[in-house]
Amino acid sequence: MAFTAVLKSEWTKIRTVASTSWTLACALLVTVGISALLCSFVSSRFKDMSAAEKLTFDPTMTSFAGMSLGQLAMIVFGVLVVGTEYSSGMIRTSLAAVPRRASFLFGKLTVATALALVVGLATSFLSFFLGQALLGDHGIGIGEDNVLRAVAGAGVYMALIALFSMGVTAVLRSSILALGILMPFFFLISTILGAFEATRKVAQYFPDQAGSKIMETVTDTTNQVHAPYGPWGGLGIMLLWVLAAVLGGYLVLKKRDA
Amino acid sequence: MIELEGLTKRFGAKTAVDNLSFQVRPGVVTGFLGPNGAGKSTTMRMMLDLDNPTNGTVRIDGKHYRDLTEPLKHIGALLDAKAMHGGRSAYNNLLCLAESNRIPRSRVAEVLDLVGLTPVAKKKSKGFSLGMGQRLGIASALLGDPEILMFDEPVNGLDPEGILWIRNLMKGLAAEGRTIFVSSHLMSEMALTADHLVVIGQGRLLADLSMSDFIQQNSRSYVRLRTPQQERLKDVLHEAGIDAVSVPATGALEIDGVPAERLGELAAQHQIVLHELSPQRASLEEAFMRMTADSVEYHAHAPGTTAPAGAATAAPAWGAGYEATREGGE
């Protein structure tokens, strides 16, 4: 079984369904749009901010403000890429054509993650440059310390969120179940638990909260609490979550009847 | 060639497939027959390595399915007509399957043409009727031009034209020397298409024999006689050394192994009035129902006319022959 043939086939699968383009377009437009809104809002109110706020203002992070919503579309993309195989019954046809479970799953995840990465990077750079243009004098250049890492990191973050969702869906073998767990988790639970001192100690190790550290260029801003890891440590924690989800998905696919 | 050896599948305490061993030979249509819930689909899924057997093995041309490189070129299967992504066009659904097995793109158009779906090739498959879905599934099975083809209940829900088309397609494919394995719960359908029969019930092998042997062993022919002078006729037959069985339910006599002509002449000689003299042939469907009667999982208990019970009332007439067949079959 040539792996390149599987990649080619998975690319055809992904480009021939409508959900791919609308979820990815949503992820890009929502992130860039909301980030731009927030940047222009901050820009107009900058003089009203406290001295401490001004001192720790992170223009890079601010231009990714829309990502917490935009990532939800990335989650839908990841869930549907894997989940429609199960909901349509296509999984049996697919596995009859590519019986090696590892080839099938990793072929699919490779293609989908690569596409999510391209869209993620386009989103993060667009969001950054538009945001900085709107911030005007309060903005920052791509050449400043850590900025390129944060912008590229934001793109990688989006791809990892998608890959995490694919892994979780492969474990659950159902789009509806996966969306029912992932959406409230990222939209509500993670945010709520991260807002309180008592629960933050746990919540800071959640994939989104740890991973989004890569987008910060100023640490210990006023509305952020010091985390016991840096940007790369945070991304590492997120990677562990992703690996666990993908490995779980592979084991379920290998052990269970299709 | 497909070889099954001691294939067993248990779901918890329930045994769906029980120590199944048989071979599917090339060049003929092998019918895989059993009542609903007998384990046909589970067996077929294990043959494609979709379900893991609890025990036993399946070999396709001597290899385990998972070890086939580009399996669609060895074996094509129609398991479930709906096993396609509805949001994708018929052409694209087949294209992604073709690409995974390095089958040239031109073949996709070829098989679509073969099954008559060219006019709707660009249409999303979720709008397809059951018959069109079935044709798309068959196109996907034919994609790799495989030597072995497997169809799970292919005529289910098809109109007469579609049924005829599938029948001829399977015969044509077998004539090309391919291995055809087709499941059904309809004996009458199998009688028209299959050359060889594998019968299962509750996951166990009940029979593995050629269609002609099955017909010979199971289709009893007899003559039915009705007369207002039954006692006299019985005496006459007895004198002639002919055994007649009276069937109280119909008030008729049934006679095995004697041509209708001879019985008619005999009655005329003795000036006995006949109301009926008709050669009968027990249907294969009936024979199949008897064979699987003990292993049908879901009996219908409709008041008055339950199929297995109805069959049992006729049992005294030819129960003995049936028992012999069962022993031979098992």
UniProtKB/TrEMBL annotation, chain A:
Gene Ontology cellular component list: plasma membrane
GO molecular function: ABC-type transporter activity
Highest taxon in the source lineage: Bacteria
Pfam families attached to this UniProt entry: ABC2_membrane_4
Protein name: ABC-2 family transporter protein
TrEMBL record, chain B:
Keyword Zinc in record: no
PROSITE patterns xrefs: ABC_TRANSPORTER_2
Residue stretches in coiled coil: none
SMART domains hit by this protein: AAA (SM00382)
Transport recorded as keyword: yes
UniProt xrefs under InterPro entries: AAA+_ATPase, ABC_transporter-like_ATP-bd, P-loop_NTPase
SUPFAM superfamilies: P-loop containing nucleoside triphosphate hydrolases
GO molecular function, one term: ATP binding
Taxonomy, superkingdom: Bacteria
Keywords recorded for this protein, A-Z: ATP-binding, Hydrolase, Nucleotide-binding, Transport
EC numbers on record: 3.6.3.-
Protein family membership: Belongs to the ABC transporter superfamily.
Protein name in UniProt: Putative ABC transporter ATP-binding protein YxlF
Species the sequence originates in: Streptomyces lavendulae subsp. lavendulae
The encoding gene: yxlF1
